[in-house]
Amino acid sequence: MTKFVDAPFLPTEVEIEQITDSKARITASPFESGYAITLAHPLRRLLMSSSVGYAPIAVKIEGAKHEFDSIRGMLEDIALFMINLKNIRFKIKGDQEQLEVKYTFSNSKEIKGSDLSNDDLEVVNGDAHVATINSDCTLTFSIIIQRGIGYVPSEDIRDMVEKEYLPMDAFFTPVKKVTYDIEKMLVEDNPNFEKVIFNIETDGQITPIDAFKEAISVMYSQMSVFNKVFDLSEVKMVENKLDDSSIDLKDLIIKIDELNLSARSFNSLDKAGMKYVGDIALMSEVEVKSIKNLGKKSLDEISDKFHELGFPIDGSLDEDTASALRKKLEQLKS
């Protein structure tokens, strides 16, 4: 018997299988026909392009003037040495977005990734080869490690570092491989429902599960732009309602630069286009956490400031206040 429905079926099942520290399988079901790929394809793209990782962006080598130079006593020339460094997967242990580290090696030695680890920096692939030096060599070099997403070519990095540094192509993405399969499944005698199966592999800088969580968070934050789509007549009604009840929005239109935040916290918000307290108050905690370059310390500082104002970062404004606030912010920014 044919059934009429007025809304798509909502999937209810999620299975997570941690295969290794760097591999995982995530299964979600059941989706109506066509819905699985609608979600799977953009999630795969976000996993590959938006996952945060660390990469060396430049190196300064004592005795080397350019990438085609060589160092006495080192088997590799500078070009090969830089390629080896690009293959090292670093991870900054603290909240720093950038870290400069200096190393000195001497005597006969095969330098591996594990030799570059220290109190501030972890090397995930410790067995990776870096260089081979003999007893006549003293190798001294400094590396700049940066936090970021995607890929940035060396040409774009050249102007960001001092001229003594040799820029390197930066491969930030910690996700090595993402595939998905869509299988048919039976739901209440209907064989046209679907199951989506993600297989995710990372390089060890981040777990596959955390990478998936980040991708979901980025998807939510990107779609939040549509929160600005609302009925103008409804906004007018809300404004009148607020005026009648004497609700004051002045705390929500305080400029961010008046909160006396640290330079790092302010710069993260400013680069993300956050100009007023209300910009943050309209966001959920997940959306705030997804702001680029916003570390845990900065998030805690911002959260404390907002609690002082009486607006916790949880997107809990009632719809009437939120609608009126959006209209007011648009007026201020126009």
Secondary structure: elements and pairs:
Elements: E1 13-18, E2 23-31, H1 35-50, E3 52-61, H2 78-86, E4 90-92, E5 98-106, E6 109-112, E7 121-123, E8 129-133, E9 138-149, E10 151-152, H3 154-157, E11 166-167, E12 170-171, E13 175-187, E14 190-202, H4 208-223, H5 232-245, H6 263-271, H7 277-281, H8 285-289, H9 296-309, H10 319-333
Antiparallel strand pairs: 1-2, 2-14, 3-9, 3-11, 4-7, 5-9, 6-8, 10-12, 13-14
Helix pairs in contact: 1-4, 5-10
Describe this structure in words.
The protein has 334 residues and is α+β, with helices and mostly antiparallel strands. It has three domains: 13-51 and 175-219, Gyrase A, domain 2, CATH 3.30.1360; 52-171, DNA-directed RNA polymerase, insert domain (RNA Polymerase Alpha Subunit, Chain A, domain 2); 230-333, 5' to 3' exonuclease, C-terminal subdomain (DNA polymerase, domain 1). The protein is built from ten helices and 14 strands. It has helices at 35-50, 78-86, 154-157, 208-223, 232-245, 263-271, 277-281, 285-289, 296-309, 319-333, and strands at residues 13-18, 23-31, 52-61, 90-92, 98-106, 109-112, 121-123, 129-133, 138-149, 151-152, 166-167, 170-171, 175-187, 190-202. The strands form five sheets. The chain has a four-stranded antiparallel beta sheet with strand order 1-2-14-13. The chain has a four-stranded antiparallel beta sheet with strand order 5-9-3-11. It is flat and about 80 Å long. It starts with 12 loop residues before the first strand and ends with a helix. Mean pLDDT is 86; it is low at 231-247.
